[in-house]
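Thread title: Can someone regenerate the structure for this chain?

I was given the following input by a collaborator and told the matching structure tokens would be attached. They weren't. Posting the sequence so someone can regenerate them.
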Amino acid sequence: QVRLVESGGGLVQAGGSLRLSCAASGGTFSNYNIGWFRQAPGKEREFVIGISWSGGSTYYADSVKGRFTISRDNAKNTVYLQMNILKPEDTAVYSCAAQSNQYSGSYALKERKLYSYWGQGTQVTVSS
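Best answer:
Regenerated them for you:
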């Protein structure tokens, strides 16, 4: 059983930056790909960004390319989401999720149904 805890959310002005963290416990962290998803009020949860178990591959939603980056430190069991040039439309609850590393590639990491463990989420609010 893997437990994921997000932190780093908050209120920021448009154009600003935030860094979210996803800390894992209870499993072998390198056995899992990690994805970040977000859900805005009245909208479905959507894929934002993902990273393979080794950190060697990353995947981005078109809406965040050039603004968001993801990295992981397997020694610290933590994944980081650096969000720059934030826009009001980035406002949402951001959740990290863990997916078995038996999966690979863009399709798998973007498919929320293939994730087994989810954090509780952290609110990100971008004011205009």
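The radius of gyration is 13 Å.
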